[in-house]
Amino acid sequence: MTAALKDGHGRSIEYLRISVTDRCNFRCLYCMPQAGLEWLPRSDILSYEEIARIVSQLAPLGLRRIRITGGEPTLRPDIERLIAMIRAIPEIEDISLSTNGVRLPELARRLREAGLDRVNMSADSLQPDRIKAIARRNIDFDPLAAAEAAAKSGLSPIKLNVVVMRGINDDEIVDFARLTLDREWHVRFIELMPVGEMRELTWDRVVPSEEVLRRLTTIGSLTPVSGPARGNGPARYFQLPGAAGTIGLITPISHTYCGSCNRVRLTADGRLRTCLFGDDEVDLRTPLRDGLPLEPFFRTALTTKPREHHLLQMQVGGLRALSQVGG
Fold it and tell me: What is the pTM of this model?
């Protein structure tokens, strides 16, 4: 029997985040330079068939959960075809999608029918003008309508991810929290992460999670609860009295959660990153296209997975933007 995948610190690796594109239809303040990046050549980007082959080789080694990311993954044509291919791999128990939500009203049902289990949707404001300012795109987009479309299609649990930025959207913390009162949604407040060319948004814009908690006590006492039954994230969860949903805190700055990390990341061009902010990458695309088994390359990569990230030391593994690896 093949040994399960573990890193050099004894952590079992069962979660793979797959970036399917480096492109996005937003230019969010904290995620991508306004001018965009130099896009990957099409020939460098893994095909759906190649991605499915990677997953099918890793699944027997203990891989159980997949998250599809970008850039914005719904920009990749027929993304539901990839979801169906991964769904057909017996060992995979959970498939989720990270998205800005713009295409959810048109795609949610097709994604669910293809085998997608749930979505994490970025929603950094509920105000139309502010949505445009943060995304730096002149769009008419209603994040609540997008989340409702996902919920009606059976993509559950619905998680809304809010990157909190002081002086930009932190005055909406309470408004977002109130969404959980009558909706079975999970609103997660994420501390701003300074990465690459987004470092002008660093320390003066960070709102620590403990401050978020203090602000929320103005609308009710918060009770610690277990997280959504499905999911694999690092959030700590709380609930307002009588609320249908929960409030989560994700704290890469004030409290690292690396000790229980069980994930690795596959970039759109086939490089395996063992830490979001780490320096180590292993090329899987070349051996894949050469017809070589991937297990030895994967195990070698895990030996270099660090115990924790070094974001506080401003070491970000050469990233220019979070959009390069899907967060």
Answer: 0.88
CA distances in angstroms from 92 to 51, 55, 60, 197, 293, listed in the order given? 14, 9, 9, 36, 19
DSSP one-letter code for 133 = H
The label of the residue with tokens 């759906």 reads 48
User: What is the domain partition of the chain in residue ranges?
Assistant: 15-324
Best CA proximity match to 317, nearest among 282, 277, 290, 283 = 277
Q: What is the rounded distance in angstroms from the CA atom of residue 70 to the CA atom of residue 37?
A: 13
- CATH superfamily assigned to domain 15-324: Aldolase class I (3.20.20.70)
Mean pLDDT, each 10-residue run in order, the chain (327 residues): 66 89 91 79 97 96 95 97 98 97 97 98 97 93 97 96 96 98 97 68 86 95 85 81 96 59 88 78 96 93 68 47 53
How far apart, in whole angstroms, are the C-alpha atoms of residue 299 and residue 305?
10
What is the total residue count of the chain? 327
Cis peptide before 143 (omega within 30 of 0): no
* Identity at 176, one-letter amino acid code: F
